[in-house]
Design a protein that fits this description.
Blueprint lengths: L2 H11 L4 E7 L8 H11 L3 E5 L10 H12 L4 H12 L7 E5 L1 H7 L1 H11 L3 E4 L8 H9 L3 E3 L1 E2 L5 H10 L4 E4 L12 H12 L6 E4 L5 H8 L4 E4 L1 H10 L1 H20 L1
Parallel strand pairs: 1-2, 1-9, 2-3, 3-4, 4-5, 6-7, 7-8, 8-9
Helix pairs in contact: 2-4, 2-12, 4-6, 10-12, 11-12
């Protein structure tokens, strides 16, 4: 059982919803990434998503785009991200870390090296936004052989065929994108989300996390009624932008703790 699967199983036994939090590696400064990861765990995050900076993040709204730009301006690349995960692992071996990004950095170093470096650093899985599941059977099998989960996105527009393919090749959990748009945009229709998740569960046995548009405790709590996990990213990065680098670690821990409290209420 992967660490991600183990985490979901433990939370289910406690009747708790997983809180998955996202930051972009290297933002607002490379030396703050690991402290921010620890702060999110201290605040109550169960799984961490660490964004690999990329110049053309197609699924991201302006908030995460700015985070990528800031990280890239400081020279942060995929090998630096592996180093950050390894540093985090020196003092935390129990919180799953998922690398989230795009195909280009992986293709640049090669899939085999990406898997080897992920495993060596202590990552537990990856979300590659522009890897279609129909073309990922070999990559997914190689990830699984290395003890890593390949996690796929599902959208309001996903067909039954696509959902079935995700069920076939995906691991860890499935990430349901609650909006027809980019990260950080719009408001979630929780009734529609509930209906879509019901249909997805007919095909996908994995836990389902819901993200895009979750901005506060009330929305997180409403989503938690129907999902196995709540995913928050843009709102955390906004918090970092609002307070600045010096206060970022404390502010992020406080914000995440507020979401965790709402989920557990």
């Amino acid at each position: 059982m992967s660490l991600i699967a183990q985490t979901f199983a433990e939370l289910k036994a406690q009747n708790k919803t997983a809180l998955i939090t996202f930051i972009t590696a290297g933002d607002p400064a490379p030396n703050l990434t690991v402290p921010l990861m620890h702060a999110m765990v201290a605040g109550g995050a169960n799984i961490l998503e660490l964004g690999v900076p990329f110049s053309d993040p197609m699924a991201e709204g302006p908030v995460i785009q700015r985070a990528c730009e800031r990280a890239l301006a400081q020279g942060v690349g995929i090998m630096d991200v592996f180093a950050m995960v390894a540093e985090f692992r020196k003092t935390n071996q129990h919180t799953p870390v998922v690398l989230m990004g795009y195909a280009n950095p992986i293709e640049r170093i090669g899939a085999a090296r990406f898997i080897a470096e992920s495993q060596k650093a202590g990552a537990d899985g990856a979300i590659v936004v522009d890897y279609p599941p129909e073309e990922c059977e070999e990559f997914s099998a190689a990830m699984r052989a290395a003890g890593l989960d390949l996690i796929f996105l599902l959208a309001p527009t996903s067909t039954e065929q696509r959902i079935a393919q995700v069920a076939k090749v995906g691991g860890g959990f499935s990430y349901y994108v609650s909006l027809k748009g980019v990260t950080g945009a719009g408001n979630i229709d929780t009734v529609e989300v509930a209906e879509r998740l019901k249909a997805i569960r007919q095909h996908v046995p994995l836990p389902i996390g819901v993200g895009f548009g979750i901005r506060d405790g009330a929305t997180a709590r409403a989503v938690a009624e129907v999902a196995d996990a709540v995913v928050i990213g843009s709102r955390i990065i906004q918090e970092i932008e609002n307070v600045g680098a010096e206060q970022a670690v404390a502010a992020v821990e406080t914000f995440v703790a507020g979401i965790r409290s709402a989920l557990d209420a």
